[in-house]
Every structure is written in structure tokens, then in C-alpha cells.
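Box 3.1 A note on notation
Throughout this textbook, protein chains are presented in two layers. The first layer is the amino acid sequence; the second is a C-alpha cell string describing backbone geometry. Keep the layers aligned when reading.
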Amino acid sequence: MMELEKLNFVEPVEGIEAFSTTRGQVDGRNPYSSVNLCDYVGDDALRVLDARLTLAMQLGVDLDDLVMPRQTHSCRVAVIDERFRTLDIDKQEAAHEGVDALVTKLQGLVIGVNTADCVPIVLADVRAGVIAVAHAGWRGTVGRIGEAVLKEMVRQGASPGRIQASMGPSICQECFEVGDEVVEAFDKACFDLGAIVKRNAVTGKAHIDLRAANRAVLAAAGVPVVNIAMSQHCSRCDHDRFFSARRLGIDSGRTFTAIYKQQ
């Protein structure tokens, strides 16, 4: 059975589950380990398919019910509805290209994103029956992908004040060293640098708190801060459990973070 890290919300979200996969059996010679669901990072296609089949069976859903986009650090949001489900596989894949967030009201559909240091965010409005997931790297954070997701959730009937959000395993501030050009990008996007940036006293290098930056985006868009939970797992520190591109390189596996409404 695949080991899953349950994502907790501040308040109960009845009928909704969220989780992140772990690396499974770790082999120092294999940067993909035994559990990688991402099919565009250089892993063997049959291994990826086997991991997806294993997860689908464990969750009691069909393979087609695992929905994940081909991410490009964009701020594009896709809605997964009944019309989308009627498309053939080629059209579905085309609709997922360059998408970094998904929103749905469908039950039994497992929507997720793949990360290896970036921040995965799951969101839910239980009363409206709307759930969402987003991949927020530093570019997506600067572009306020969290705000884009909330706008689409509202179009589907959600209310920002009712939304519960939870962030999965991602790189911590201590590990996320960046160049000054990244700090400048956040500055130009009007982030409060004092709240998310600190400098290493020895190296002078900047370190950004991506989780805090995304919390600020969600709060500014109307989600109460008290409704936002953040994982304490750092993907780079806990690289034996979660994938880290900074630790393993780009050609490595990805952690799949998902949310679904139980049938």
C-alpha cells in the first residue's frame, strides 16, 4: 500500500480528503524512488503508470479519475466539469497543458499537482461543494495563483470567507536561497518583503518564505488567515520522504498533492 501524508485543515471538512504522496522505497541511486506519478520528468512511463494505478486502486477510483495538469509555473486555472469529462483523452490533455491549478465540484474526482519544492495548496468550501488545488512556485506566487484559484472557486459558487486552505510539503525558508532578481520580482509585485525575506548573516544571500507569501495572497483575496494551514514538512530537509529538486536535481520524482470529495 502506498504511504500517504494526510493534509490537515484548521476546521473539519466533512466528506473531503487531501493528501501528499511520499517517495516510498528510497534508493540513493534512483532519484525517482518507487512512487512518482509525474510523467514529464524523465521517469520510465510504465513505472509512472504503475504508481498511478496503485494510487487509484488504493483510493477506490478509476485511473481516469486521477486528474493532474502539465504544469509550467503559470497562473492558469482549469475547471474540471461534466463537459470536460466528455472530451476524449487528447482533448483533455490539451486542456491541461500549461495549467497549474484545478477547480471542480465533481465527487470522486481526485485533482492534484506535482511538486518538488514548490508549494502545493488545496482549498475547499464544503457548503458550496467546491474544491481546488494549485501549484505555487516562486513565479506562480509572484503572479498570485492563489488569487486566480479563488476567483474561479467563487465563480463556481464558493465564498472566500468559508474556504479552508492547506499547504502541503514544500521548501522551507532556510533552504530556499534565491538571487536578488527573485527578490526584485516579489518587490515589483508589491509583496511585503519584510514579512517574507531574510538574509543569511554570513553569505548575504536572500531566503524567501514561499508559504508565508502564499498565505498573504490567500488572505488578501478574502480567505481568513485562521482558515489557512501550512505543513511543517520541508521537502529539502525531509528529502527521504518527499522529493526535492534542489536536493535531487530537476530529473527526479515529484510529490503528488491532491484533494477529492468522497463518493
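DSSP finds nine helices and 14 strands in the chain. The two ends are 21 Å apart (CA to CA).
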